[in-house]
Amino acid sequence: MAERGEVRPGEVVIELPAAFDGGVYFIGRIRTPFKTRDDCPKSTARSNAVGQVELDARYAAGLKDLQHYSHAVLLYWMDQARRDLIEQVPAHLGHSRGTFALRSPVRPNPIALAVVEVASIVGTTLTVRNVDCVDGTPLIDIKPYFASTDSFPDAKRP
Amino acid sequence: MAERGEVRPGEVVIELPAAFDGGVYFIGRIRTPFKTRDDCPKSTARSNAVGQVELDARYAAGLKDLQHYSHAVLLYWMDQARRDLIEQVPAHLGHSRGTFALRSPVRPNPIALAVVEVASIVGTTLTVRNVDCVDGTPLIDIKPYFASTDSFPDAKRP
């Protein structure tokens, strides 16, 4: 996908709305071994990396009981990604696909979702497995993972 | 969970930051049979309801190729929920739990996540199964569901 101004042949740029409709707080940071976008694995499935989720002290009480879940969903803010590409040409694909059929960080709302295994929680630091984002990525939410609503092992893809 | 001003005994309120760090666009609306919060099922696992995701025309090209996936992740904005409760007392639990150990709409960034089965896509309308939100809820993202990274059938919960 294109980032930081680059648009590939076949990609489609749209005009975004003039104003935002809602605001997000950055509630922490995700520490990973990946210092740049180019260092990152293609997805959490291709990452065995261990990272730390550092939650701001203000939100510490929000972690109560999270240790009883084996997995969590992280939502984070891809602040290095442009937001105005609605069709993208991933290098591995060679032709365009709609932004909503991709997990690219480039999207109108640059929110990424990763399911991680929670190895430990000490104070406001979660140690997690399977991280794939750039070191320092802003965190916007942590949710417990529920197999009952979140796991569809037979889901089909092309 | 408490909403619209109500705080239950045992719940903990925090002071939120003075300013937002990022902005979101509402990119469409989710149409469901549930006219109020009280009508909604507790989760997508308890809903067989069919709903429509109505994407704004501006983003239409972003749906290209999504029809090849059986399931999608919807992110939506729980605009009726307060954002400053960090411990909550769900009625079914009877004691407090941290916000990040709950899927409650009440959280610093009121973003909900639902995995839905995509029944059809016609124009900019997706018909989906397993919706659980209030009719008219603002949509902020659609992502293809990948069993390889998103499905953990053995994930543990209390």
Index terms:
158 residues; mainly beta; three-stranded antiparallel sheet; globular
Give your account of this protein's structure.
Two copies of one chain form a homodimer. Chain A contains one helix and ten strands, in the order E-E-E-E-E-E-E-E-E-E-H. Chain A has about 160 residues and is mainly β. In chain A, strand 6 and strand 7 form a beta hairpin. Chain A starts with 11 loop residues before the first strand and ends in an 8-residue tail after the last helix. The first copy, chain A, is about 5% helix and about 35% strand. The model of chain A has no long low-confidence stretch (mean pLDDT about 90). At the A-B interface, strand 2, strand 5, strand 7, strand 8 and strand 10 of A face strand 2, strand 5, strand 7, strand 8 and strand 10 of B. Strand 2 (about 20-25) of chain A pairs antiparallel with strand 2 (about 20-25) of chain B.
Draw up the topology in text.
The structure is a homodimer of 158-residue chains.
Chain A: E1 12-13, E2 22-24, E3 28-31, E4 50-55, E5 71-77, E6 85-88, E7 97-98, E8 111-122, E9 125-129, E10 137-144, H1 147-150
Antiparallel strand pairs in A: 1-6, 3-4, 3-10, 4-9, 5-8, 5-10, 6-7, 8-9
